[in-house]
Amino acid sequence: MNEAPKLTLTRSLALFEEAQSLVPGGVLGARRPSDFIMGEYPIFLEYGKGCRLVDVDGNEYIDYLCGYGPIILGYREEEVDDAVIRQIKDKGFCFSLTQRYQNDLAEKLHEIIPSAERSIFLKTGSDGTTAAIRIARAHTDRLKVMRCGYHGWHDWCVEMKGGIPEKFYEDVYEFRYNDLDQIEDLMKQHGDQTAAIIMTPFGHPLHQKMQTPKPGFLEGVRKLADQYGAILIFDEVRTCFRLRMGGAQELYGVTPDITVLGKGMANGYAISVATGKKDVMMTAASKLFISSTFFPNSDGYIAALKTIEVLERDNVLEAIWKKGDYLLQGIRKAIDTYPDAGAELSGVAPMFFVTFTKGNPETKRARRTDFYTQMIRKGFFFTPHHHAYICYRHTREDLDKTIQAMDECLAYVSEKHKA
Fold first, then answer.
1. How far is 185 from 194, CA to CA, in rounded Å?
2. Is the distance from CB of 201 to CB of 229 less than 8 angstroms?
3. Domains of the chain
4. What 3-state DSSP class applies to 273?
5. What is the pLDDT of residues 125-162, one digit of tens each?
6. Is the torsion defined by CA of 407, 411, 417, 419 positive or negative?
7. For residue 338, which phi and psi values (nearest 5 degrees)?
């Protein structure tokens, strides 16, 4: 049982100690050290290029978290960055009025995404899902919302309820992905008061196995929304521009009324979109208010237009699916070789997750911790609590190294935890 040597993280840990005197908790949200493995993962990164990261202590990693999803091409993608730099230097990007690139991007989205007849541009996924809910409530004059999946940090949907009065989320009801009977029962109870059904069309629940839709599930939810006059919202922040250019709705052939976009659309630049059918989206022109000083900033528009251009021109998604299929084939072989490790692979080629739900439930956390500890020590950046992504700059050599490392780490877990 060969254990990988522990990483040197002296500078990262020192910066974290300093940060705790400056920022509540040192680091907020999903980037907290407790969301990884304390003492094993870097806390501060220095730079990235392609599919590689280097932390402040000089450790290098092949990265599969991709900034939690925005990096679809690679870090410091010169063609995208150069387009944004030219915009900033030659024309500027923050003004009292909107620049024309808003129209260019809205037209492009209309061309490639089935539901995108009218678009509103924002900055984050949480902005987008919250705007979509507001539009749906204003359009239907109803209050209740059915939700499935992670939709951000705003009051109506955040998982941790600290600081949020119950009245802000008491009309929001959760249903399980692929459980059509459950959402049907909820709609029987609340359908005539339901403004929206919001869901991730591809199942990526927090900390759990990923799921593809069962036959008839998405079609069934679409039918329920139509039956009760509710707005169907697809949260495609992670899936659009990664599963297909037109998102999971293109892949699975079910079109929502509103779609929320973000992450991979601009290769790391801050922009999100609530887009949808004309009759629904036009509600935002007269019955509600959505505004921010920074929503019209054109750096995000320019980055998105250039990223989409590269995705289409270079057949990026086809390449990502091929790379992901190759990697997943290797991971499955390693998992089958070491059944005592209790690992399980879920997801699809562009986004996947290795979990430890099999085997003895009393050791699943320890097995997961041991596996991801060995992986980060070997220089492969995954996280125990979130699925992984493939980006365009992952090479066959990177994938082969990853498969070899997973084989070694599963062997380690299997031997250490053998029944």
1. 13
2. no
3. 10-75+316-416 (3.90.1150.10), 78-313 (3.40.640.10)
4. strand
5. 999 999 999 999 999 999 999 999 999 999 999 999 99
6. positive
7. -125, 70
